[in-house]
Amino acid sequence: MNRLLDRETMSQLLAKREAPCLSLYQPTHRSFPERQQDPIRFKHLLRELEDSLKQQGRGDQAKALLKPFQDLMNDPDFWNSNRDGLAVFGAVDYFEVFRLQRSVPELAVANDRMHLKPLLRIAQSADRYQILAITLNSVRLFEGNRDGIDEVRLGDGVPKTLEEALGRDLTEKGQTGFPQGYSRASERGDPMQVESGGAGRQDEIDRDRERFFREVDRAILEHHSRKSRLPLILAALPEHQFHFRKLSHNEFMLSEGIESDASLLSHDELRQRSWMVMQPRYIKRLEGFINQYGVSHGQGLATDQLEQIGQATLEGRVATLLVEAERQIPGVVDKQQGKAVAVEDDTATTSDLLDELTIWTLEQGGEVIAVPTERMPTQSGAAAIYRY
Questions:
Q1: Domain enclosing residue 322, as ranges
Q2: ∠ CA(365), CA(371), CA(375), 5° rounding?
Q3: What is 158-189 written as a DSSP string?
């Protein structure tokens, strides 16, 4: 029901060009009674979508296109698990829902492509990360930013417990010995037969843990980290931190973790401790982009001029685009000519040039980073680093 804002998902949304494409955004509320109003506001926005379709002469398609939206509206379980914002997209044979950790303005529009600007600003923020919370009895994954964290549904191939990972190969709980005093090691044909309850059984337990950690590491990397490409914070007891890191192949895992059983932490405590780990790396990452811009600018391989950025983007020369996170710049755009010019009058063809440049950059395979105003290295609202 809720997709992650990873590069693959954004590419799929950008590729949707078969009209009509329906886009709906609304702020939502986590707590009662405020969240009671959320499905009511959603219903009003559905009417706006229907009106938009009728005005475009597509009223005959409205019923089929809006059915999944209406099913969502009538699902009470969905509205009991709100976050801070909601983005819903629909087209022929396509429907996606995103619960957001940041609020978004209300919007309902039917157009030739998905309206992705509010979503792009969130997806391109450099403060996003994931938390892997693991014990021998539980595997949980969270995704967050400086404002909050939420649990992520684990991929189908990710084991949730040691027993689920190892099945019948798991050393029995409370094992006190097999007939003749042999451990499960000897039962499986291992050459060494050891007395139960001694070092042999502990070796079995240690091997179980190692196999469990290997399986979790492999599955998290395959089903989550490689797709999201987000920094991963390990939350586990100190002894589990050591053993998990020793065998992990996840290149996205940060060297510093949370040395605690996450189940013993409140939601807010886990957010605070994870942000303590992430914040210095977030600042360092931003500084890296800003420093790279300065060096590249000195080499003639960067610019803050919006017109030049527009042209370079469509030529595929922009490797990284820094955009001021909370800024909007109305302007005139012409994608065929690579034209992006800021204006201050009613001739503007788009409400925000920065969002157009963001979309153009992503379509050409570039990277976009939303930068807080106080750290933005330019006054224009954008800074492009060229490939060549």
A1: 300-386
A2: 140
A3: S-SSHHHHHGGGSPPTT----GGGB-HHHHTT
Is 147 in the same domain as 107?
Answer: no
Q: Which CATH number belongs to the domain containing residue 102 in this structure?
A: 3.30.960.10
Whether 198 is covered by a domain: the verdict is: no
| CB-CB contact of 69 with 88 (8 Å) | yes
- Tokens linked to 371: 């930068």
Give Cα 27 distance to the centre of its chain. 18
Cβ–Cβ < 8 Å for 368, 323: yes
Query: Are 378 and 358 in the same domain?
Result: yes
pTM over 0.85: no
Angle between helices 353-363 and 7-15 (to 10 degrees): 100
Q: Which residue is listed with tokens 């020793």?
A: 246
Q: Which of 106, 123, 140 is the last residue of a domain?
A: 123
| Calpha distance 110→69 (Å, rounded) | 13
Q: Kindly state whether residue 337 falls inside one of the protein's structural domains.
A: yes
User: In this structure, are 230 and 319 located in the same domain?
Assistant: no
Written as one letter, the residue type at 121 is R
Tell me the pLDDT tens digit for each residue of 234-247: 999 999 999 999 99
**Helices H, strands E: what count in the chain?**
13, 15
148-152 vs 318-324, strand pairing mode: unpaired
What's the Cα-to-Cα distance from 179 to each of 167, 183, 310, rounded to whole Å?
Answer: 22, 9, 76
**pLDDT tens digit sequence for 352-377:** 788 889 888 988 889 999 898 999 99
CA atoms within 13 A on the CB side of 155: 16
Same structural domain, 52 and 79? yes
Rounded to 10 degrees, the C-alpha dihedral 255/261/263/268 comes to -50
